[in-house]
Amino acid sequence: MVHHGDRFQIGYDPCMLCPRRCGSFRSGFSAGGRAPYCGESSTLRLAYVGPHFGEEPPITGTRGSGTVFFSGCSLKCSYCQNHQITHQAMGKAATLEELFDLVTAMINDSGVHNINMVTPDHFFPHVFHLVERLKKEGYDLPIVYNLSGYQSVEMVREAESRADIYLPDYKYSDGKLAAALSGCGNYPRIALEAIDEMVRQKGFLNRWGGASSPASRGVLVRHLILPGHIENSLAAVTSLFVEFGRELPVSLMSQYRPVVPQKYEELNRVITMEEFNVVYQYVQELGFENLFVQFPEGNGCGGALNGLFVPDFAREKVFER
Hints:
The chain is α/β, with parallel strands linked by helices. Helix content is about 30%, strand content about 15%. It has a single domain, classed as Alpha-Beta Barrel (TIM Barrel), CATH 3.20.20. Strands 5-3-4-6-7-8-9 form a 7-stranded mixed beta sheet, covered by helices on one side. It has a 3-stranded parallel beta sheet with strand order 10-11-12, with helices on one face. Strands 1-2 form a two-stranded antiparallel ribbon. β10, α8 (about 230-245) and β11 form a beta-alpha-beta unit. α8 (about 230-245) runs parallel beside α9. It starts with a strand and ends in a 28-residue tail after the last strand.
């Protein structure tokens, strides 16, 4: 990745950063160029930079994960839990220097355990530059890529020397559902290929010694249970088991809520305990040895729907509970 200041030799013009390969010339987007699928020009835009305590324990630790939320998204699921920044263009423009200053201030002020790039695909050139500069200036915290799973193998390979931990989703095993909700019927294949490359690079998330000793390397795969679609969840975790085995760290998430009205009626509600239990019991039967579980509200195991997991980017305290 060659760069010069805020200009990059490859990456944005034409943009081929994600599997959609829309070919938009993003530097001219604001001047009337063809709109990229992610909705973003080549100008970096940020929605939030700060500690987050709602990730899995090996990522959160005791001092939080240092999250950087980028505006826009190359996947744009209709039900996105971060709809404000992926669909509604919430966020502010920033230069590379401003991004570096925000991240280093967060490190110095909060003592976060890692730097967590949330849905960064469409700004990979900026992100790679940031990581290189952090390393050059002596910041050696683990770099986390918090991803949708819809990544090209080529870009995952570009990230290899600039990544320590990958947190990809595996949202769909059903291509028709992926097409209906995220506009990408090839998601199951693309995501499995990307995750396979991530595992090749980093292995599974390394063992950790509790909250005071967070993970420093590896892959943990997340799956969000969607209401009315437990068959997709059962097939998705089966695919992960078949492809990667029982030692793959898996995070089963129940935090879904309808943040905007949905075309498909079943998505206009949260998941039921019955739906959760079917998936949870099946995952246990498969025998995953490194399983993280986000239990639904109302069962005495913690509230998945509060602000710790689903942020509100219109608030000053984005993750206020």
